[in-house]
Amino acid sequence: MPNLRTQLFYTWFRWSRPMTLGVRAAVENSDGAILIVRHTYTPGWYLPGGGVEHGEPVLDALARELREEGGVDLIGAPALYGVYSNHRIMRNDHVIFYRVKADQWQLCTPDHGGEIAEVAWVQPGDVPDDITPGNGRRFAELFEGAPVSRYW
């Protein structure tokens, strides 16, 4: 169950945007580890990403979120992996998911404004138990051969 801050945020989004769109990415380093983040306002581990702002191109949103949350600066075009319905979390929400290979990014200084509590690199077979369900399903699709779902 989301905390009160998260519930208020979802409510504001529902009223301000009839359809919401988010981006997330599996960012891989040269050792094959994947970047995950823990937010300050909700429990669990997530692949980095966030909302697409009004008038913002999707790839610009992805680049912004990766810089802010993970200190990752895109230098190459990421591969689109899938588009998912996220209606379990918020009605009429969608997530566009990308895969970013090790040669498509470089380190930069993150600018998350206190939104991120922790950043980690994990091997695909060693994902934390408290990764959120949708993010865990993406690991299973990418690295364990699980069928690709239409739902986040």
Please report the distance between the alpha carbons of the first and last residues: 17 Å
Radius of gyration: 15 Å
CATH class categorisation: Alpha Beta
Mean pLDDT, all residues: 93
CATH architecture: Alpha-Beta Complex
Helix/strand/pairing class, anyone? alpha+beta
Helical content (DSSP H or I, runs of 4+):
25-40%
Q: Unreliable stretches, pLDDT < 50, 5 or more residues? A: none
Number of strands: 9
Strand arrangement within the widest β-sheet reads 4-1-7-6
How would the global form be characterised? globular
CATH third-level topology: Nucleoside Triphosphate Pyrophosphohydrolase
Q: What does it look like?
A:
With 152 residues, the chain is an alpha+beta fold. It has a single domain, classed as Nucleoside Triphosphate Pyrophosphohydrolase. The protein contains three helices and nine strands. It has helices spanning 4-16, 58-70, 133-144; strands spanning 20-27, 34-39, 45-46, 49-51, 72-74, 79-85, 93-100, 105-107, 116-122. The strands form three sheets. The protein has a four-stranded mixed β-sheet, with helices on one face. A hairpin with a 5-residue loop joins β2 (34-39) and β3 (45-46). The longest helix is centred in the first third of the chain and has 13 residues, at 4-16. The two termini are 17 Å apart.
Brief summary:
With 152 residues, this protein is of the alpha+beta class. The chain has helices at residues 4-16, 58-70, 133-144; strands spanning 20-27, 34-39, 45-46, 49-51, 72-74, 79-85, 93-100, 105-107, 116-122. The strands form 3 sheets. Strands 4-1-7-6 form a 4-stranded mixed β-sheet, covered by helices on one side. Strands 3-2-9 form a 3-stranded antiparallel β-sheet, with no helix packed on it.
